[in-house]
Amino acid sequence: MNTTVTATADVPGEAPVLDLTAWTCPAPLRDQPRVVMGHGGGGALSAELVQHVFAPAYGGDALAQLADSAVVSLGGARLAFSTDSYVVRPLFFPGGSIGDLAVNGTVNDLAMSGARAAYLSCGFILEEGVELSVVARVADALGTAARRAGVEVATGDTKVVDAGHGDGIFINTAGIGLVPAGVDLRPQRVVPGDVVISSGAIGVHGVAIMSVREGLEFGVEIESDCAALGGLVETMLAVTPDLHVLRDPTRGGLAAALNEIAVASGTGVVIQERSVPVPPAVANACAVLGLDPMYVANEGKLVAFVPREHAEAVLEAMRAHPLGAEATVIGEAVEAHPGMVVARTGLGGTRVVDLPIGEQLPRIC
Amino acid sequence: MNTTVTATADVPGEAPVLDLTAWTCPAPLRDQPRVVMGHGGGGALSAELVQHVFAPAYGGDALAQLADSAVVSLGGARLAFSTDSYVVRPLFFPGGSIGDLAVNGTVNDLAMSGARAAYLSCGFILEEGVELSVVARVADALGTAARRAGVEVATGDTKVVDAGHGDGIFINTAGIGLVPAGVDLRPQRVVPGDVVISSGAIGVHGVAIMSVREGLEFGVEIESDCAALGGLVETMLAVTPDLHVLRDPTRGGLAAALNEIAVASGTGVVIQERSVPVPPAVANACAVLGLDPMYVANEGKLVAFVPREHAEAVLEAMRAHPLGAEATVIGEAVEAHPGMVVARTGLGGTRVVDLPIGEQLPRIC
């Protein structure tokens, strides 16, 4: 990536033409010269973009990007630091809004490092012409969600792009929080025998968005599970700081989260398909839409790899918390098939749960 | 802002219709029901958006947004925390790119709190169809700028929006850094008698962008002054930690920066117009374009309010630094006309330098 870029503006008002003839993208992106929706999908294409484009460009420990948040040292403190941009459509949906997502998504990324979010930054990219009243409603939802999560919006920025060059409202939030002493949540700490716990039912957020966006009705309104998980994680860490890894299965769903952990830890993961809680309304909607709930995004759930000796106590503590009332064991880490996730089906068979390539549901968060 | 929002999706694929009939925007935004470019311009409209929409929604100390960065306490450390989104067009311009801006802009916001940037987060919003090679070149520029500024990209995120709903590449960066003990940079610390120092020539970045975007030629190519100011600020603080306020005059230019300081400090500011360094090429371009250099964005300059007893030593230290070689005194804080900035013109007259309303040069950063 050390070629020369010559920027010349041939046409007034046009962006300069880039001479990139000498540039070749490292495989496997080479076959794909342009960005596709899947590059934002949280699956294999997203991971390739980080591994082949961003990580080499940034150097250092930038591969930390592959985790939900980075843990850094500053002024003697261990901080979790994370960012997400939010481009969900529509802006308001059953159970939440882009403002709720912008808080809870980033708060949850910090929680997955064991940190209680302390401060958020908040950058709006507005499209010229969007109603100020809509901006205000989104800001209101964001502020309310922040107060509920106990995090302060400390700094912000607003940019406006010309009509037709944005899409109403995009939001970026970044967050910082303290990682408690003794807490070290990383997929590399997973060992065979670890118990895999889900904090509740999966697939709800993605289906809620799709139903409103596509005007579908499934008899029951499905509300997003969007919620801030900092309190639940505190409850779990109070049982033992020795949890191995936490992940909130957002884009790419439970399947992507488990695959990332399996690959990074070098262990296998076995899921009991019948144990994975999928609400009937979500199962029905997925059947109609041709989706697999394992790949649908969640915004208020987490999956935990817990040492076997602590599993029962952690599960009990989770169930005593409103956001973990339906927590359940869904599988375990195993020595067999390292780096791979398999599901034991209800009929006794076994199937591989692959990392999704791209985007099953675009612009879900 | 406590009205009810009812979201209903009448048309498949359309965003839900918001019932906002009961919502009224507090004056003075009331006259303007939709977002205009000026709301992102760093002038009066931007300030109103923060004061009337964001600050009431977020509560707490969110008015810290009006500063370049917030100073927060975490784990016993004083941290500067800041965010900016970057939507500049074109992506590459003489002297820099959106990748350089995304690093230097946020690093500089932290530097204005006296902090050396330690870690950045980096969120890309990509438009479907943008060339991966362009993404890679931007990431490369961003990584190079980060290494030059001595800051680590610690965490990131990538979202993709459908073609026609974005504009190639938008970037958000947030940054954190330590504020050294004894440093307390706030406009409220400005007192009459403070000396106003500019670190160099103004108006360069904005004119560089405009010239390439509009295909204008002014005889000499004008290169953006985009640079990271952390080192220069360290040099200044080594003379005395008792600087009163620093500001990098980006959107809205020197005029906006001085007005914000005058209003927040309740002092008057007098500028000697002939002392404000404007390169001839910038002056010529501004004459042709009908722009006032005082309102044109800079990306590698700062303005400092320094106690009179330290001014000479600080100026000397600045001039010994490559990014402050042309540092010069441009005015002073005064008791007269509190909250107002006036310029003594070359002919001996006086003019008021107002806060700009909106956007003189859209999408400049």
From TrEMBL, chains A, B:
Residues 68-179 form the PurM-like N-terminal domain. Transmembrane segments: none annotated. Gene3D superfamilies: PurM-like C-terminal domain (3.90.650.10), PurM-like, N-terminal domain (3.30.1330.10). Residues 192-337 form the PurM-like C-terminal domain. Coiled coil: none annotated. Belongs to the HypE family. This is Hydrogenase expression/formation protein HypE.
